[in-house]
Amino acid sequence: MHSISVASEQLRSRLANEIPAAPGLFHVDVSFPLNDAFDPLAWLGAQSVWPQFYWQQRTGDEELAALGAVIRFASLSEAQDFLHRQEASDDTRLCGLNAFTPEAGALFLPRLLWLRTGGTATLRVNLFSTDSLQEDARAALAFLAQLAAMKPIESLPATLLHETHLPNRPAWLQLIREATDTIGRGAFEKVVLARATDLTFSEPLSAVALMAASRRINLNCYHFCMVFDRHTAFLGSSPERLWRRRGIHLRTEALAGTVASHPDDAQAGRLAQWLLNDDKNQRENMLVVEDICQRLQRHTRALEVLPAQVVRLRKVQHLRRCIWTQMNDANDAQCLTLLQPTAAVAGLPRQPAREWIQRVEPFDREWYAGSAGYLSLAQSEFCVALRSARVSESAVRLYAGAGIVSGSDPEQEWQEIENKAAGLRSLLLLD
């Protein structure tokens, strides 16, 4: 028997005996050692309850799986207000997604939360009621009774029926020329343009299976998967942190500037060195750094920008500069407003770049280039929702974007989005 099954039984016992009749927000935890081959992603995939949310920190130090919603929130500010209004415990976690347009979100207080930090896991059941927590405990007991045992993750389909790019290659090349012309006229310094690739398969695709495959080979990334219902999900493996907050201590970063990666270490090293010395990519990265610092400076103490480093991924390498500071107030809604979308996913100045994107991109970004993660009163962490895909039964939409500045070459930018999209595309196709 898996340790999570033992923990579930302990939760059932405590829910039947320890719950007050008062209204409010309450949780029951059972902690247990990681002494078996339990995979929280496979456990989520075995359930017929939604929403489901999986998230893993890019170092692998922290991982969570959330199942079922006690209460849902349409924005991060609404979620944060709930935590304050209910005087939640510092470690009450709400999790989910923020859209590219940050005023919209899909966050929730999970009915059941599996959380791993280091080598210890905790299973938590959350209760909330405006009348009686004992009544909600009965609903939680019914919820636990319907859980299924973990089973192996199903395989991905191999038959592709159709593939379409939005925009296609000629339209993309023309769009980049229009962008550089617009930059030349002084409308903005940088704009980030994206492409959607629609793949249609012969059979429905498992979002959990795609997430598992990506997690296995796309190392040094955040992994996230939001399954909205039986048919629809959004997932990705992103190298970029939007922010991490511990109390008032804040860490964010500028991840901008890209070159191809290579399986050979020596060749990858030469490409990385080129990236560090390339004027266009350094300029693109520094635009993001300057924008982040400008946005934060009135709301934080001294800002520390660390030296540039190269982040090597499976298909691409990026320039990254980390930015550390302390906030005046521990305010996640403020973090979201200030940081999303960054110049790395929208452009600079932000508003004219966003308006131009809305006018010229032939699709709605929805969750792409938004963010995925969790918040609590004590801490929060969100990654930028890049290298991502929307799954709708047998249809998959892959997203990839490129930062356009003065001097950007349309052919090189097409190759860049090809490289970025390959992180998930290669898992779906037998090329």
Automatic annotation (TrEMBL):
Active site residues according to the UniProt entry: 190 (proton acceptor), 240 (proton donor)
Record EC number: 5.4.4.2
Lineage summary: Bacteria, Pseudomonadati, Pseudomonadota, Gammaproteobacteria, Enterobacterales
Gene3D superfamilies, sorted: Anthranilate synthase
Domain Chorismate-utilising enzyme C-terminal, chain residue ranges per copy: 170-420
Name by which UniProt lists this protein: Isochorismate synthase MenF
Residues annotated as transmembrane: none
Keyword Magnesium: yes
Function: Catalyzes the conversion of chorismate to isochorismate.
Molecular function (Gene Ontology), one example: isochorismate synthase activity
Positions that bind Mg(2+): 284, 416
UniProt cofactor(s): Mg(2+)
Family classification: Belongs to the isochorismate synthase family.
